[in-house]
Structure formats: structure tokens, C-alpha cells
């Protein structure tokens, strides 16, 4: 973003805004944002460096930005655990299915809510917003999911949080900002409601949909709690639960209690780093591709709405 | 009825997971008639008998899934267990990271497995009032091995400490014949040798040794400690407190039993606690102890030890072998580290470890209605409490995973390894066979508990075993209302104690202000708290004493 801004500034012909004060602001702004980038990036680079270093150098506190004593044993170790890959596959499946369901449901709901002529619109918005502030609580939710027979199945993970109210409202605002004339014209040309949604509105909403995909995909990829609650078998867990357990096993020497495994009570620091890297990598690679929609999309909906 | 259950739901939302829907349903059957529940049980089952169900049975069990030996369905443990007992266990796998939370949820939702192991007292208190867990003390007659060990090992004081206000207990304890103290100070003995000092036996000698180290290496803090999170000084305060006759750190209890006066005192306001703080304050003030000891991360403390910036740290058998020694071997191969026998303090030569440190088992109330209830209790008795069951869950199958030498001492067979006993082994007793598993293997007689110890650790344990086990404080079980009241008082009291523990140690508040500090505690209902404890203690003595 920083480079993008400066490039544009350089190309633009000198105008009244290129005062000295503005240039100073640009420089200061660039420095501050660069600092923010460094602060945000450092922990991640450090984790990557740890994952590629050998244990001795990590313990000695020598690993900062560059790997010390380069080795890949930890990567081999983690990738050789079949449960890691099973859980990894689960995460991919859950994320894809859950995102698809969420997008369909959120789009439908938001589109309906964006129509001012809809009767009972206020109540429908109210129902959604109500869940932002109040929830049934842990145990009732658990009882609900269990009695619906969704426990220990993919549905327990992908259904309960399918509609995120915040995303819903953003999307509703976006749809409201679309010119009604377009839809009227489409109706005149003989499209029914579904045709308008599918052929006119959705093609114009790629930006917001891409943004929503990103929002949902990231949150489902990172989520572990629903899976932990409703799944009882480790071959169903997403990789986040695997990772969490690995880290907790490494830090919770005391809670391990009783018989603790002496040869590896502490999952080695490298091992943790490797798992963290492998877990965050895919979602990280998706980011840059959706990010351009992300920037324009959210602002578009929010400002005009 | 509906209204009531929804009120409960609201309560549960507020975080009271323990309040359960089960509590709304019928009360557990009080009847002692077990004729309907004997399917699959052995008619004659006594001490020394192998339990084998008369028909194939299966029981669900909550399984604490340890990341270092993740659950596998093809473990020899499962198949051999079924072969011996005709029982199949159905594990509900819960990641170790969030075991307690899931346990509360499952019990609260009435969906808990029948057998709930790895529960540490007093965690079961939260579930008692809901009626979701079984008062196991009513059914000890079904468990001959457990009863036998209670008598043989004089376990009554420990059992009493589990009792609730109804006089029953709801947790089958993990029982060790002798206490096993694991944590102590780890010291660089090469530095001691260099200074011509013997291994310190008392805390005063520890002080002298640290002083000598500081004199020789003025740029160091000789003692830089770890385990500062989440409880500052968790391990150190725990064993140091025990040496001073109080309890602190991980094991902080609000009350301390004073056997001589036969009464409880408030721990954080007691003279022993003050002495302990004064001792640590002296170490910090004279630069012998790193002030960061109570807040730094474990890794930071390890790095200081590894880089020769400190010479003393808290540790246990495993951290010594797996962390400190390998760390130092890389930076300073000449260094020697030893876990010294717990230094002796004003409380005398005591062994502070409890005999129930390995947690216990809860049973779901719904198991009582099962026709296989008796068989299940017999099964639990065999697996967790019989010598044969305990040996099986720890060592596995003779001839496959372990063998005995001429003197009867067990050893792992050729290619099996665990805790580094057989580094050449290609298979792992825990990972590949499912034995020595924290869910099933705990407690046991001295010989069994120590059978996995290294010779070095045995030496440490022999010193500790020769000391007097610490007296188990008498119980003062609280009623539900009292417990709620006490919970309101305990949090501010504990916060104030923890906070001031640190400021006193670090010298931010002089110990001359001790009386002012006690007054502050009194303004936080200290006296009312102790009156309630005394009342509960008297009541229990009257009813059960």
C-alpha cells in the first residue's frame, strides 16, 4: 500500500496539493507505516526463522530474523505425522464448505434486507442483530447441536456460524448502494427476482463477494472452538486444534501431571514453529489475490451505505 | 419445570458451566439395591483376582489426548485390555489443551462419558451439586482392590480431604503408596566444587552458597528462576513454602493447618508465610536472586542458565534431563547439573508431596442406572487399583513390551523405549503401544512408581522418602451456599496476597509494613472467611469425626 501511494504521487502532475506540507506528510506517513509493517512482520519472520533453525540456537536465543544452523528435520518430523495431514485436509474441507454455505446464505439474506419495500424488514434485521449481542450460551448450543444429530460431523462446524451478522450488514449496505434503476431496467426487460439477483446484481458485486470470501475463509481457517466443542474424534479435528494441543502440551508441563512423557514433555520449539508456519501459510498466500477487492470493496459498501 | 430449566440455562451462560440441565431432572436413585445392575459382573471378585466380564461390555471414557502420544486405535493397550477383561473402552478424545473446559461442557449438557479420569481435586466440587457425578464413596464395596489399598496404605486422611458436606466423596483418588516429590532446586555442582562447597542441605546453606557464587561471579545473578507464569514463582514458592510450613505458589491454599494448635490459619497472613517472604527478599536484596525470576518466561530463564549467567534454577527430573543438561552441554560441556534434595527449612525434614498428586476418576451418575454398573466398578477397580492392572497400564505385556530379570526387576524389551530408558529402541511404549499413558497409569506402590526412575532420580527419591510426609489437613467441606460466599471472598484475597507476595519479595514494599498488609486483608473479609472455615470444620468433626 505504501509503495502504491508514492508511485501514484510521483506520476501525478504537480498540482496545488503538492505543497511542501503535503510532501512532508507523505514522508512521515511512509515512515510510520513502514514501522508498522516491520512490527507486524517481525514475529512472523521470527517464527519462520525458528522453524528453519536447529534447537540449540533457539535455546541460546540466537535466532532473530535469519535461521541459525539451517535444518529441515522439524519439517520432516511434522509432515511425517499422518494425523497432521488428516487434520490439515479437514481444515481445507471445512473452510471450503463453510465458506460456500456462508456466502450463499449471507448473500441471500443481505439482498432481501436491502430492499426497502420488504414488509417486516425491521424485524428481520432485528433478529439478526439480536444475535450479535445475545447468545444462547455454551451448554444450550451444545445440547441443540447434539439433538440435531450434527455432533461428530462436518455440519457441526460449518452450519452454526454460517451467517456472521457484521458481514451481513456490510453486504446489505453494499446492495443498498447499487442503483435501483439497474434492477428496474432489468425487470422491464423481463427478468424475475432471481434473474435480477443472479444476472445483474451478483456480477456487479464481485468485489464485496470476494471480500466476504476472504473474511469467512480466514475466520473458518483459524477457528478451533466449534470443532473442539462438537467433535470427539481426533481424525475429525481441524489442524488448528492439533496446533493448539501441540503448543499447550509444550507449555503446560504442570497440567500434564501424572505420567508425563519425559523424552518430549516439551514439544521442541522448532516443532511448534514449523506447525505454525505450515498452518498459516495457505491462508497467507490467498490474501494478496483478494486484497485488491478487499480494499475497494469494504469501503465502497460502508461509505455509500 | 420449563421455566426452571431456562433459568438454569441463563446461569450456565453466565459461565456457571457446572450448573447442569441434569440437575433439573430426577435425583439419582438412593437405593443400594444392585441386583438389577449386575449384568456382566463377576459374582466372586476379590483382592488378587483378574477381572473378566462374563459377557462382552463396553464403556465410554473421557480421553485426555496428549500431543506427545496421540490416541491410536490400534494400540496394544486396547486389544490386550479387551482380551483380559472382556471390556472395550470407547474413548471420547479431548485435546489436552482444553480438557477441563470440555469436561465441564459434557457434564453440564448431560452428555458425559461414564468414566471421567484425570480429574484433580477440587475440580469435582463444581459438579457435585448438579447431581451429575456419582458419590463413589457409597460403592467402595464393589472395589476390593481399592479398599485393600486404603487400609494397607492408611489412606483415610487423604480420603477425608475429598469429602463433601454430605460426608461422601465423588472422586476416586489416584493413590500413591508414598509421596513423590519431583520439584527441587537444580544447581551447578561444578561451581560448588570450584568454590569448595558441599551441596547445601538447608535453605540457610543455599543462601550461603549463593552468596559465595555472587562473590566469585559478581556480574551474575546466581539464582534465576522459571515457572513465573501464570503464577509468579509457581514452583519455587511451592516447595520453599512447604519447607517453611506454609503453602504458596502453584499450591496456594487459603488455609494452612497448624497441627500443634489444631486450628487453621489464613496462609497469606501467617507468620510462616512472612518468614518465607523475608527469606526471598533477602536473596533479591543482596543480588543473589534475579528479580526477573518471577516474571520472565521459562525460555529466558533457561537461556540464562545455559549461558552461565545463572547457576541455580528450579527443576524436576524431566527438565533436568531434557532441558538444562542438553542446553548446557552445547554451551559449556564442563558444567555439571544436579537436582539437589529439597533443602530443609523451619518446617523440618518433610516430604511435601501429596499422595494423591496424580488426580482421580469421576463416574457419571447415569452409570448407576446401567445394568452393567457393578461390572464397570469392578473393571475400574482392576485397571486402576489392582497391582496387575497398574503394572499392565504402565509396563504393558510381559514378554512383549517388558521382561523381568533374575531379581524380578522389570526392564523394557529390546526395541521398546520410553523416557529415554532404552535410547536404541525403535518403538515407543507410549506412542506405539499406548502404555504408560497419563489417562490410565497413575498411582501405585512405591516399587511400581519408581520403576521408571533413573538411578540418579532414585537417589533423590530415597532421600525424600526418608523424610516425614507432610500431614494431610483435616477436611472442612462447605455447603453450596457457603461455597458461593467463599468464592466471592477468595478472589480478592488471593489477588491481594499474590500481588503483595511479589512486592514484598522484590523489596518494593518493606516487610516492616507486614501488619498494615494483614489489616488490608482483614478489610477484605479475612476474619469472616476464617470463621466460616472454622464453622465448617467443627460441623464436619461433629458429624463425621
Automatic annotation (TrEMBL), chain A:
Name assigned to this protein: Sugar ABC transporter permease
Taxon lineage:
Bacteria, Bacillati, Actinomycetota, Actinomycetes, Micromonosporales
Q: Where is the ABC transmembrane type-1 domain?
A: 88-287
Membrane topology label: Multi-pass membrane protein
PROSITE patterns per record: ABC_TM1
GO terms for cellular component? plasma membrane
TM region(s), chain numbering: 21-45, 92-112, 124-148, 154-175, 196-221, 269-290
UniProt record, GO biological process? transmembrane transport
Task: Give the location in the cell.
Answer: Cell membrane
Question: Which domain of life does this protein belong to?
Answer: Bacteria
Q: Which UniProt keywords apply?
A: Cell membrane, Membrane, Transmembrane, Transmembrane helix, Transport
Tell me which InterPro entries the record gives.
Answer: MetI-like, MetI-like_sf
Gene3D superfamilies on file: MetI-like
TrEMBL record, chain B:
Q: Record's InterPro entries?
A: Bact_solute-bd_prot1, SBP
User: By its UniProt entry, which Gene3D superfamilies does this protein fall under?
Assistant: Periplasmic binding protein-like II
What PROSITE patterns has UniProt attached to this entry?
PROKAR_LIPOPROTEIN (PS51257)
Q: Give a yes or no for keyword Ribonucleoprotein in this entry.
A: no
Q: Which UniProt keywords apply?
A: Cell membrane, Lipoprotein, Membrane, Palmitate, Signal
Q: Does the keyword Membrane apply?
A: yes
Q: Which residues constitute the signal peptide according to the record?
A: 1-25
Taken from the record, one Pfam family name reads SBP_bac_1
Q: What is this protein called?
A: Sugar ABC transporter substrate-binding protein
Q: Which organism is it from?
A: Micromonospora rosaria
Amino acid at each position: 500500500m505504501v509503495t502504491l501511494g508514492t508511485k501514484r504521487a510521483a506520476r501525478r502532475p504537480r498540482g496545488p496539493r503538492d505543497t511542501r506540507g503535503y510532501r512532508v506528510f507523505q514522508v512521515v506517513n511512509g515512515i510510520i507505516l513502514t514501522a508498522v509493517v516491520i512490527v507486524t512482520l517481525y514475529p512472523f519472520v521470527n517464527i519462520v526463522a525458528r522453524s528453519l533453525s536447529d534447537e540449540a540456537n533457539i535455546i541460546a536465543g540466537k535466532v532473530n530474523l535469519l535461521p541459525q544452523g539451517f535444518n529441515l528435520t522439524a519439517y520432516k518430523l511434522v509432515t511425517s505425522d499422518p494425523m497432521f495431514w488428516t487434520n490439515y485436509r479437514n481444515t481445507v474441507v471445512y473452510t471450503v464448505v463453510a465458506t460456500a454455505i456462508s456466502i450463499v446464505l449471507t448473500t441471500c439474506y443481505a439482498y432481501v434486507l436491502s430492499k426497502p419495500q420488504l414488509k417486516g424488514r425491521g424485524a428481520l434485521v432485528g433478529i439478526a442483530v439480536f444475535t450479535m449481542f445475545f447468545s444462547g450460551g455454551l451448554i444450550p448450543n451444545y445440547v441443540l447441536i447434539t439433538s440435531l444429530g450434527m455432533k461428530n460431523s462436518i455440519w457441526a462446524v460449518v452450519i452454526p456460524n454460517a451467517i456472521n451478522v457484521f458481514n451481513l450488514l456490510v453486504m446489505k449496505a453494499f446492495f443498498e448502494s447499487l442503483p435501483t434503476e439497474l434492477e428496474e431496467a432489468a425487470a422491464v426487460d423481463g427478468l424475475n427476482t432471481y434473474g435480477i439477483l443472479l444476472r445483474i446484481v451478483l456480477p456487479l458485486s464481485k468485489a464485496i463477494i470476494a471480500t466476504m470470501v476472504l473474511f469467512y475463509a480466514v475466520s473458518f481457517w483459524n477457528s478451533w472452538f466449534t470443532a473442539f466443542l462438537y467433535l470427539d474424534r481426533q481424525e475429525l479435528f481441524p489442524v488448528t486444534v492439533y496446533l493448539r494441543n501441540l503448543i499447550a502440551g509444550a507449555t503446560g508441563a504442570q497440567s500434564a501431571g501424572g505420567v508425563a512423557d519425559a523424552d518430549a514433555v516439551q514439544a521442541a520449539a522448532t516443532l511448534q514453529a514449523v506447525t505454525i508456519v505450515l498452518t498459516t501459510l495457505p491462508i497467507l498466500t490467498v490474501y494478496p489475490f483478494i486484497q485488491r477487492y478487499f480494499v475497494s470493496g469494504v469501503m465502497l459498501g460502508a461509505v455509500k451505505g | 419445570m420449563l421455566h426452571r430449566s431456562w433459568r438454569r440455562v441463563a446461569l450456565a451462560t453466565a459461565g456457571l458451566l457446572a450448573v447442569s440441565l441434569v440437575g433439573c431432572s430426577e435425583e439419582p436413585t438412593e437405593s443400594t439395591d444392585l441386583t438389577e445392575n449386575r449384568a456382566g459382573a463377576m459374582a466372586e471378585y476379590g483382592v488378587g483376582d483378574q477381572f473378566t466380564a462374563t459377557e462382552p461390555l463396553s464403556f465410554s471414557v473421557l480421553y485426555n489426548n496428549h500431543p506427545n502420544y496421540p490416541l491410536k486405535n490400534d494400540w496394544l493397550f486396547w486389544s490386550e485390555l479387551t482380551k483380559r477383561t472382556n471390556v472395550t473402552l470407547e474413548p471420547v478424545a479431548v485435546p489436552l489443551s482444553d480438557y477441563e473446559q470440555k469436561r465441564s461442557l459434557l457434564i453440564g449438557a448431560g452428555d458425559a462419558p461414564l468414566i471421567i479420569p484425570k480429574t484433580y481435586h477440587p475440580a469435582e466440587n463444581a459438579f457435585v451439586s448438579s447431581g451429575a457425578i456419582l458419590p463413589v464413596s457409597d460403592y467402595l464395596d464393589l472395589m476390593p482392590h481399592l479398599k485393600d489399598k486404603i487400609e494397607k496404605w492408611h489412606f483415610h486422611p487423604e480420603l477425608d480431604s475429598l469429602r463433601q458436606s454430605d460426608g461422601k466423596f465423588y472422586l476416586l483418588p489416584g493413590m500413591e503408596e508414598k509421596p513423590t516429590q519431583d520439584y527441587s532446586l537444580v544447581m551447578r555442582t561444578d561451581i560448588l566444587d570450584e568454590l569448595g562447597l558441599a551441596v547445601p542441605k538447608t535453605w540457610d546453606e543455599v543462601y550461603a552458597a549463593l552468596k559465595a557464587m555472587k562473590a566469585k561471579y559478581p556480574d551474575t545473578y546466581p539464582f534465576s528462576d522459571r515457572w513465573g507464569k501464570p503464577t509468579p514463582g509457581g514452583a519455587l514458592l511451592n516447595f520453599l513454602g512447604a519447607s517453611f510450613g506454609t503453602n504458596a505458589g502453584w499450591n496456594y491454599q487459603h488455609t494452612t493447618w497448624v497441627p500443634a494448635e489444631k486450628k487453621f490459619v489464613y496462609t497469606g497472613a501467617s507468620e510462616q508465610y512472612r518468614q518465607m517472604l523475608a527469606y526471598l527478599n533477602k536473596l533479591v536484596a543482596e543480588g543473589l536472586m534475579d528479580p526477573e525470576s518471577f516474571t520472565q518466561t521459562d525460555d529466558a530463564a533457561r537461556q540464562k542458565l545455559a549461558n552461565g549467567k545463572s547457576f541455580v534454577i528450579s527443576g524436576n527430573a524431566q527438565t533436568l534431563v531434557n532441558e538444562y543438561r542438553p542446553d548446557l552441554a552445547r554451551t559449556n560441556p564442563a558444567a555439571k547439573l544436579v537436582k539437589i534434595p529439597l533443602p530443609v527449612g523451619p518446617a523440618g525434614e518433610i516430604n511435601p508431596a501429596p499422595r494423591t498428586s496424580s488426580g482421580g476418576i469421576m463416574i457419571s451418575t447415569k452409570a448407576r442406572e446401567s445394568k452393567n454398573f457393578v461390572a464397570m466398578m469392578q473393571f475400574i477397580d482392576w485397571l486402576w487399583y489392582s497391582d496387575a492392572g497398574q503394572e499392565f497400564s504402565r509396563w504393558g505385556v510381559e514378554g512383549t513390551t517388558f521382561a523381568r530379570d533374575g531379581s524380578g526387576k522389570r526392564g523394557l524389551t529390546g526395541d521398546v523405549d520410553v523416557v529415554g530408558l532404552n535410547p536404541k529402541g525403535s518403538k515407543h511404549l507410549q506412542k506405539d503401544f499406548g502404555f504408560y499413558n497419563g489417562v490410565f497409569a497413575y498411582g501405585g506402590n512405591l516399587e511400581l512408581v519408581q520403576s521408571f526412575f533413573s538411578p540418579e532420580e532414585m537417589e533423590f527419591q530415597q532421600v525424600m522418602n526418608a523424610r516425614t510426609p507432610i500431614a494431610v489437613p483435616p477436611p472442612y467441606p462447605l455447603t453450596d451456599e457457603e461455597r458461593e460466599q467463599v468464592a466471592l471472598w477468595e478472589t480478592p484475597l488471593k489477588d491481594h496476597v499474590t500481588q503483595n507476595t511479589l512486592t514484598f519479595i522484590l523489596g518494593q514494599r518493606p516487610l516492616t509494613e507486614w501488619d498494615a498488609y494483614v489489616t488490608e486483608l482483614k478489610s477484605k473479609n479475612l476474619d469472616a472467611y476464617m470463621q466460616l472455615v472454622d464453622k465448617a470444620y467443627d460441623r464436619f468433626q461433629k458429624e463425621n469425626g
